[in-house]
Each structure stands twice: as structure tokens, then as C-alpha cells.
Amino acid sequence: MSSINLVSTNVVGLEKELKRLKIFRIIAVLFLIIVSAMAVLAFVLNITLPTGSVKKEQQSTIVGISLFDKKLAQYVLLDDRVKNISSLVSKRKNYVPNIYEIFGKIPDDTSVDILNIQTGQLALTVSSGSLPSINKFIDDLVAFGVSGKIIKNVIIQGLTLNVDSGKYSLSIKADIL
Amino acid sequence: MERKNEKINLEFTNFLILYRHYKAYQLPIGVILACILVIFLIIIPQFQQYFISQQALKIEVDKLQILKSNYSFLTNLDDSKTGSDFKTLSYALPSGKDFAGVMNAIAYVSAKTGVSVGDFNFSLGDLSNSSTMGVTAFPSVQIDVNLVGNAQAITKFIDELYKTAPVSEVTNIKASGNSGTITILFYYKPFPSQKIDGSVPIVALSGQEATLVKNISSWNNIVDQSLTPVIPSVFSETPVATASASGVNTNPF
Hints:
The structure holds two protein chains of two kinds. By secondary structure, chain A is an alpha+beta fold.
């Protein structure tokens, strides 16, 4: 006796088909929901950006600033002068402190005959009746040259004696800093 | 011919069978495809637009902050102090060739140090309108001055000159015996010619700059100046200011 299959293979296939269709429908609905939510979110985000109010506030502040036109101009120009003067004052060459340092080392019985400064080159001639004073001055200049803070590259150009006046004359050359 | 028609009929029948079989799928698949299209064509561009707008907003907010801080700064700015500081600094660094200022400075320093001034020689340079000159460099008026005094006195003269308006620089010193010659550069600088914009951040003077202003206020020849600088027409396209001392009428040459 042969067995009778009551469950048709066609019915099983139909059930599978329906299940697949159901999954497709669920996915489609999910897509619809997600896309709608995203669209609404993007729209809301875009319209809630306060660009307009910021622009309005900018305009009102600009109007406020325009009341201080003169003040603003004066301050901007003041700032320009300060920056330029600051730059100039810091960059301009000032030999005076270094000259004072050198003069500070000149003994009382020694006088400055010639002082020339040109493009950072110092030429100095001093005279004195005392050779030890000249010697002391040379020592001090050499010390300056060694430290390299006031002058450098010190060259003694000559030490002469003027018999008539009885004075020694010292000429030096150096780079003044 | 008949066979061909038969084939077409067969294919059409197959298509109809398939169509009927998958008819129920059409709607969900169509919806899914439409959604994908909407995502790529509308939603992604909208989000991109949002991020762009957000960046633009950030720029605008920053600009607003600058404007607000400028407004607050200007509200609290002491008008009279700014005016007097500007006047002082305009003496120290004139916007044009300030011959009166130069003469005053030399005369003032001479009187103060007791060093007599002999002949002097101006090197005027370009006499064209100073506003056309470059604003980054520092133009100057060069003057060679003969002085009567020893090296120490001449050094004192230079020292005092460095504390006198207008800003100057001594480039050469020649002192011999009881006379000497110095070469002085008196600097000036035209005002910037760009339009003054309230949306550019205003930075308060630093402590160092404030000290500089204070120091310059105590310079020689500042309070003695009878000539006052003219504040430029500030919101014109080319706001160029010139000290009246540099005007043609005050030129002694």
C-alpha cells in the first residue's frame, strides 16, 4: 500500500513565497519610515540653523560700531603709529650707550681728539701726557673687545708721541656693536 | 513566419507568467528603490547642505563675536586719551616730511645740551606725495648737521636727539677737536591707505606698546609742538592723513 502525501509541495512553496513577500514588505516599510525620518530630520536641522538671527545681530552691531567711526579710525591709526614706532625704535642703531661705555674708561688725564663712526666702524683717537693712562685705556678696550659686547675686532692703528706738546696719541679702529 | 509568431507569443506568455508570479513584489521593491533614490538625491545633499550651513554659521558667529568685542572695546575706549596719544605719536612719527618738526627737534636738543648747531644740509629725497610711497618701508629725511662741541658734547647731543620727536637715527658721527658733523635720518611714514573695517578684530595695545606710548609722551619736542596733526578722513577709500607741519606752507625751504 502506497502512502499518500497530504501536504502538497506546491503549498510549501507558496508559504515560502508569502514569507519572502512579507519580508520584502517589512523592509519596504522600514525604508519608508527611515527615509521619512531622515528627510524630516534634515529639513528640521536646516531650518533651525539661526543664520538669519546671527546676520541680524551682526547688522545691529555694525550699526552700533558705526556710531564710533571716529574713535575706531583714531584707534586704528594710533595702533599703526605704535607698531611702526616700536619697530623703528627697536631697529634703529643707537651707538650712544656704547660710546658712553668707552668714554667711561677714558682716564681723567686723557682727552678724545677724534671720534668717527661710520657704518658700524669706530675710529677713535685719544691723547694723554701719561703713558700708563694710555696703557690702561688700551687694556680696557682689549677687555671690551674680548667680551664682544661693546666693540670687537679692535685694531691699534698707532701710538705716537708729539714732542712739542709732550702728549702720546693713540689711534684705534674697531667694529662698534 | 508562423514559427516566428509562435516564438514571440511564447516569450510574451512567459513574461506574463513571470509578471503575474512576481506582481506582489513590485510595490515593495519599487518602494525600496524609490527610498534609495531619495536617500542619494535628496537626503544626503540635504545633510551636506546642513554641514556647509553649519560651517558658514560658525564663521558668521565668529564674525559676530569680533564685532561685539570691537563694539565693547570702542564703548570703553577713552576718547580723549586716544586722541592725545595719537597726537603724540603723530609728532614722533609724522605721516609726511615734517621739516618744522625736524628744525624744532634740532633747535630743542641744541638748546638743551648747549651744543651749537652750525651749517646743515637737508637731503629731501622724493618730493612727490608721500601717500604714494610704500607703507612697509620707512622713508626719511636725511640731514647733515655741523656741531660745535667736543666728542662728549656731541654724544650727549645724539643721546638727547634719540629722546626727541620726530624719531631719528644717527648714522654717521665725525667729531674732531671741538667740532663735528653728524648725519641724522628723521623718519616719517604715511598712514595706511586701506579702508578701516569694523569687522577686523581690534587688539588692545600690549603692555610693551602702552609703555612705549608712555615713554614717547615724555620725549622732548612733544609738548612744544604748536602744530597739530590732521586726523584723516577715515572712512573714505583712501584715508591718508598728513601732519600739518609737513604741509607746503610750513616748509621753510
